Structures are given as structure tokens and as C-alpha cells.
Amino acid sequence: MAQKISLARDSLQAHEPAHRLSRIRRQGYQRWRLLRSYFSLAWLYEKRWFFIAMLAGFAFMNMPTPPGLSHEGQIVLAMSLVATILFVTEPVPLPTVPLLIIVGQVVLLKLDPNKVAQSLMSDSVLFILGSLMLAVAIVKQRLDKRIAWLIVRLTGTNLFWISFGITTVCGILAAFVGEHTVAAMMLPVGVTLISLTSNDPKKVRNVAAVLLFSISYGCSIAGIATPSGGARNAIIINYWQQFYYNPADPATWRFLVDYIDWMWYAFPMFLLRLPLVTFLLFLTFKPETTDLSRAVARLRTQIERDGPLKPSDYQAIFLFFIVILGWVFWSGTLGLGTVAIAGATVFLVAGLVRWEDINSGVNWGVVLLYAAAVSLGVEMKATGAAEWLANSMLAMLSQFGAAQGLGLWASMSVLTIAVSNTMTAGAAVAVLGPVVLNTATVAGDDPLTLGFITAISSAFGYLTAAAQPAFTIIYASGYLKANDFLRIGWKMMLLSFILLLMLATFYWPLIAR
Amino acid sequence: MFNFFRRTQLSDRQERAVERTLQQIRAQRRARFRILACIDGTDESYEAVRMAARLAPTDDCDIIVLYVRPTDQGLWSGGLQVKLARQNMLEAGFDLPGIRDLKRALDVLKEEGIDAESWPTEIGHQDAWDAAGDNKVEYKSPKGRNVVLKLKTSPDIASGILDQYELGPYNLMILGEPSRWRGNFKAVFGSGIVQQVTMLSPCSALVAREGSAKKRGFFICTDGTSRSMQAVRRSAVLAQAVGEPITLFSVATSEAGRGAAEENVENARALLKAIGIKAAEIRVSIGKPASEIIAAGSDYRIIVVTDEGRSTWQRLLRGSVAYDVVRGARTCVLDVR
Questions:
Q1: Domain termination site, one of A84, A115, A146
Q2: Measured between alpha carbons, how far is B235 from B204 in angstroms, rounded to an integer?
């Protein structure tokens, strides 16, 4: 009897999943089962933050209007509260939040739909749009190995110097074209070096961490160095111009911050942290080996096999430098956004990138997100909500003696760091910008100083993989664990915070305009 | 207008042919003992692969090793789609996350005596949620045995594993030891991947734990119901096939129930004897079923429990011995459906 037994027939059964539900096919049946398991309380629980946000917004909107705040201002604050909760907790896809903001502005604030639509587009939003398109165009050129080889030729085969070289080169590139572009472009280089060092990733886990974090920190610390380094910079420049610049009043011309002005203020912050990143990485991760000669030899072989640079590569490098020169010299008159859009257009015209690649490589939801966040920020200022919030915040800070000077700067920096660790930096600056700038005005401080502090602090979200675009990209390689970000992140955050305050205290007064 | 409501643009005859082919494939698969081993790259998850190799002793057994990769999404990457970075990596000749782990699973199978790498291969790709899609490598031995390495992408890992069942079907799903297993109340609001898959799996599920390799024997529990007797018979067939001794076990909640418990194990023994399988040992215990099973069964390689087929709400109100055992045992647990 035992010999006749068949495992498939007599042992555990493979039940027919679609037996009684033949019309609901393969995926449908299982999804239905999963949905059924979520249904009722579990679904509500999963979406709980959406309902909590809506209830909190509704409650805030309907409570008695505080003295000094207009009803419209109260509505804008309620919308900001809802948006912030949704940004942080993400119960719905993030592009849903800007859609809600747009609907809220028309339905709750009773604004003219055309004006709301107009408020969504500005030079900073065009810049975000253009720089994302440029990012795809640049990443598609596949110049990563050449850049890696250039680094290695300068640094030799020791991991410490390679790490320093990667951080420096990534930093210099990211300062001009945005951190996400450089991270996406350089990720294969990091992985090449890791995989050429050892076939077993577990044996070189710390080497992998040092190399990949060199890329991401290089990108991250440089993202604030120039206006084109990130959306947050363009947004705060836009706020200064919208809130303070008056062509008829020469005293306000200083709020028209151009490319070079920004670099005078923020570039030193990148330079100061550059040498410290590699030290921190080595202290935190203690790599298993520091000799990468095997990997470098193989990299050299790969470069030789690829042959010399092609004409299209030279074309791409040339256009890349033209765009940077455009930003440096013409952004004052043409605007950052126009230069970025022009750059993307030239790449398309030259046939260096296909529209299909741009279309699939850009997450258009992000453009919508920034557009709506900036629009909400402008509304905060227009309705007086930002000023009321600034007054309330100053009243609270004055109890701790932090209503002016260094105390105020430190408080604003901490607030921005806290917010940017929980949401994307551009959105954090878009929401906080009007409040911080108004706080500066009310406290008699310089809006330029506090604006720079906010923009730069928003790049200090180092604690999670989702806090920075460059982090998310290197995390996608699968070589890092989530808690690696925390291990190095808190040290980097503390160091950056102290350096920023030192810069604001000792250096910025020397170059004040 | 009428065509708008059709599911397919094929003619009825072509549609019937497609259906027939699908049915044939399913029938062929159902004639084999198919094990789905799910891995996530942790050392615990390779126990699942090791166990799959041990529970698939003959050439009519197939092993499918599955790695589910969460879909790339780009909003947190500053507007640049993560898939662009992924594409860049693929073009540079790098593996997707998960491929390394699947290769390691192949090494684990080799250690267990299944050298699939030397067999002829077939490679398959299917567009799925992101650019990289679903990929698989199928190794076919000359004797007809299949080992499949599958890299699947899904927005949610548990749902990805359950989707894979639909492409089966499978006789057994094996998962590594979970890092957490929520209680019945908390499970209503959400649970970990292993727990979710174990609860929703249409076929029997085995949670593999480290250290069970040193132990021996199937510890098969019964409460005398026809459902549990079925489970006893089916798991005993598996135990016989892999050459493991069988211990039959029943728990009485009080001294008064001892007689009934003894009768349960005797009935189970007789049932097995009728199909030519010998139980090495029978045991009876008094106390709370789940804790008694865990205490007595943890010295065996696999504890076999019968799934009560209760929904989340029923488990919340009435509890479930099967899940309590899966949660608390210090050895592998097979939840038979």
C-alpha cells in the first residue's frame, strides 16, 4: 500500500484557488481575499491618519477664530495642518495632498479658480520641472564609470581617499545639478566598486556602507551650496522676492538673491563639511578592508573595453557646463527655471535624450506637490496666517529667551530639521518658509539670515532613508539597512547644526549686503 | 457595443482553446508535489529553502523559491523616479536586489543534495509593477523535476506571495521564522508578512525555524474531528515519504477528557495503519492545548496542527490553537489546510 502513495495526491493538497470563482481571475481572487482581510476596522485603521487629519482640520477650522487672525487665515492654517499630517504619515499617495490643497483653496477659501491655477506656477516650480528633466538627461549619458576612473586616478586605491574623492566629486556635481541626479548617476559606480571588491556582499558590508554613503552624503551636503542644488533653494529665493522685493524701494533690492549671492552664503557650508564626512563614515562603519586595488584594476579593464569618449559624450559634457554657466550668469535676468527648461530643451534637440525617457523618469507628482505647497505658502502670507503664527511662536520662544539672535536661529533650525526629517525637504521649506520669514520680520531679525538657516537646515534630515532624495536612491541598491542611516545620521545632523550656527554667527555678518 | 463588455478580443473558439491549455497546465502541476519557499535574504528565511529540499525527496516534487521585491516608487527621491536609478544599475550589469539571495538559495539547495545549477534552464520575464518586472529562472532536471527561482515585484510583499499562489497552485508554502507575530486582537489591525501569508494562504503553510535540523520526527496533533483526521493522514503520508518517524498527540483539557484523547490518537493510529503507515509513538497530555503541544512538540522536527479555518474575527472571539502553536513553538510548525 505504501508504495502506491503519491505525494501530490495523498499528501498536502494544492487547493484550486479559483474553483468557485472562475470569473474572477488569478490576481483578482487573491486580492479580494486580501481586501476582505483588510475590510472593516483594519482598512479604517490603515487610513486612520487621513481621517484624523481631516477631523483635526475640520475642528481647527470651526473653533473660535483666535484674536489677531482672520477667518481666511484660520482656514489656511487648517489646510496646512491637514497637509502636514498627510505629508508625515502618508496614508494616501503624496500627490493626493497637492490635489486636496488646490480643491481646498477654491472650495474653502472661495478663491477664483483661475487665480489658484495661476498661483501654482512660478519660476521656482519651472526650475523644479526643468531640473528634473535635466536630471534624466544627464543620468542617461552613462558617464558614471568615467567619473569614477577620474576619481580613482586622483586618489589611488585606498578606500579612505576613494571615499573622500567620491564625496568631493559628487558634491561638486550635486551643487549644480541637484542631489538626486548625481545619486542616480553615481550609484552604479558605488555598486561596481563594492561588487568588484568581493562577490559576497556580507563580507564587505561596511565597505559598501562607506562607499554608498560617500555618494549620498556628497550629494546631500552640496544640495544647499547653489540655488540649482535643490528645489528648497529655489523656493526660498522665490519667497524672498515675493514677500520683500519692491522694485521702487532700493532698500529691498537685497532680497533679490542671485546665483553668486547664494553661493557666497551657502557654499562654505558644503566646503566645511566635506573633509568631515569621510572621517565620520570611517569612524561609524569601520570597513573590513581599505585596499580596493582589485576593484580598481577591474574598473580600469571595463573602461578600456568601453573605448574612448564618443562625440555624443563630449556634446553632453559641453551642454552640461553651458547650463551651469547659464545658471551662474543669466539666472538673475532669465530666472533659474527658464535656464533649466532651456537646458532640457537643448538636450532634447541634440537628441541626447528621448522624451519617452524623460516622461518615465520624472515623477510629475513631485512638481504638483511643490507647486501646491508654494501656493499654500503664498496664501499663508496673504491671509496673515503666517504673521499670526510667527507672533505666537515668538511669544512662546521669548519665554525661553530665544526670541532673537542665536536662540531664534537655533530654534528655527531645530524646527526645520524636525519637519524635514519627516517630510521631503522642498515641501518642508515651502510650508515653513512664510512662517519663518514672518518670524524674522516680527522679531526684527534679518529675513535673509533666517531664510538661509531654514533652507540649509532642511538638508539636515539625515535620520531615515526617506528623508533625502539621495538616500532613497542609494537605499534602492539593496546594500544598506534602514538603521545604517540612523547610525551615521545623528552624528552628521549634530555636526551640521553646530557648523551652521557658527557660520551664521561669525561668517555671514562679514558678507552681509 | 456588445464587444465592450467582453473580457477578451479572442473568438469563443480561441478562448476555449486558451482555457483548455490553462487547465492542462494546472492539471500537470496538480499531479506534482509543489513547494513554494519564500525568502527575504535573512538567515532565517534560508531555513525555508532547506526545509523545502528535505520535504521534496522524490522526482515528482518541485521547489519554487520566491523573493518578492517591493515596487520602486519615486516620490521620496526628489521627483526622479527610483526606477531610473534601477535602470541605470541594470544597464551597468548589476543584479536587482533579491537575485543575490536567490543565488544563495540555489547554493543552499546544493548543500541539501539538489544540484539544480547543472540542469538545463529556461528564463522567463513578465512585465509587472515596475520596469524590472517579474523574472524567473526554471531549472529542469532530466528526470522531470523542476526548481524555479522567481523574483517577483509587488506593492506589498504579503500580497505578492499570495499572488504567486495563483500562478501555482502549490501543495505547501514554507516561510522563515517571523521576527514578530501579533496576537489575535492586534492581528485585526494588521500583521507581519509571515503572519499575513500564513493566515491567508489557501494551501498548507509551514513556518521553518532554525535548529530543527538537529531534531527528528513529525509530531502530529489531532483533536478527533474529521478535519484533523484528514490532516493526520495527509501529513503522515509526507512524513513517510521523507522517512521521518511519526508521533501522534492529543490533548485533553481535563482529566475527565483523557479517555476521549486516548481514543483520538488510537483512531488516528488505526487510520494510518489502514494505509500502511506505522506511528512510532502515541502520546496524550492534559492541559491547555496550545501550551501542551508547544511543550511536548518542540523536541521534534515538525509539529503538525490542523487549521481551524477561522476568519480574523472568529479567531479574535474564539481563539485558534493552530496559530497559538505557530506563534509559540520553538521548532517548525506545519499548519495543514
A1: A115
A2: 10
Backbone angles phi, psi at B173, to 5 degrees: -115, 130
Q: How far A70 CA lies from chain B's nearest CA (Å)?
A: 34
Q: Does B168 touch chain A (CB under 8 A)?
A: yes
Residue A27 lies in a domain: no
- The ipTM, to two decimals, is 0.71
* Three-state DSSP class for residue B234: helix
State the Cα torsion B262-B267-B272-B276 to the nearest 10°. Answer: 110
For residue A397, the model assigns a pLDDT of: 78
Which pLDDT does position A56 carry in this prediction?
A: 94
A477 contacts in B (CB within 8 Å)? 89, 97
> Do both A369 and A484 map to the same domain?
yes
* Cβ-Cβ contacts under 8 Å, B200 against chain A: 33-34, 37
Q: Which of A29, A13, A54, A118 is nearest to A375 (CA)?
A: A118
Chain B residues with CB-CB distance to A185 below 8 A: 88
Residues of B within 8 A of A146 (CB-CB) are: none
CB contact under 8 A, B85 and A201: no
Size of interface A-B (CB pairs under 8 A): 213
Q: Based on the fold, state whether residues A146 and A237 are members of the same structural domain.
A: yes
Give the percent of chain B with pLDDT over 90. 37
For the segment B161-176, the average pLDDT, to the nearest whole number, is 86
From the list B163, B190, B312, which residue is nearest A46 (CB)?
B190
Q: Tell me if A409 is assigned to some domain.
A: yes
| pLDDT score of B63 | 94
Closest CB to B31: pick one of A8, A93, A128.
Answer: A8
Which of A97, A115, A133 is at the close of a domain? A115
Do A221 and A357 sit in the same domain of this protein? yes
The Cα of A425 is separated from the nearest Cα of chain B by a number of Å equal to 9
> Is A147 inside a domain boundary?
yes
| Minimum Cα–Cα distance from A424: chain B residue | B76
What is A46-62 written as a DSSP string?
Answer: HTHHHHHHHHHHHHHHH
User: What does the pLDDT read at residue B67?
Assistant: 93
- pLDDT digit string, tens, across residues B132-146: 678 888 999 988 899
A188/B167 touch (CB, cutoff 8 Å), yes or no: no
**Nearest residue in chain A measured CA to CA from B166:** A26
Strands (E), B186-331: 204-208, 218-221, 246-252, 281-286, 302-306
Does one domain contain both A87 and A131?
Answer: no
In order of A37, B196, B197, B235, the CA distances from B188 in angstroms are 8, 10, 14, 30
Q: Are residues A83 and A143 in the same domain?
A: no
Q: Is residue A2 part of a domain?
A: no
What are the structural domains, with CATH classification, of chain B?
Answer: 31-208 (3.40.50.620), 212-336 (3.40.50.620)
Burial of A407 (0-12, 13-18, 19+ CB in 10 A): middle
Q: How many domains does chain A have?
A: 2
- Any chain A CB within 8 A of the CB of B317? no
Q: What is the model's pLDDT at position A16?
A: 67
Domain boundaries, position A71 = 43-115
pLDDT at site A36:
58
Whether a cis peptide bond, with omega within 30° of 0, leads into B169 is yes
Query: Distance from B92 to chain A by nearest Cα, in Å?
Result: 7
Which one is predicted more confidently, A120 or B37?
Answer: B37
Q: Does B81 touch chain A (CB under 8 A)?
A: yes
Residue A88: per-residue pLDDT: 75
| Helical residues (DSSP H) of B130-254, grouped into ranges | 157-167, 184-188, 193-200, 226-242
- A390 CA: distance to closest CA in chain B (Å): 28
- Looking at the structure, do residues A377 and A470 belong to the same domain, yes or no? yes
Please answer yes or no on whether A30 and B165 come within 8 Å at the CB atom. yes
Chain A contact set for B277 (CB, 8 A): 2
Q: Which residues of chain A have pLDDT under 50?
A: 1-2, 21-26
Same domain assignment for residues A335 and A187: yes
Please indicate, yes or no, whether residues A367 and A440 belong to a single structural domain of this protein: yes
Q: Which helix (H) or strand (E) is A159 found in, with range?
A: helix A159-177
Residue B210 has pLDDT above 60, yes or no: yes
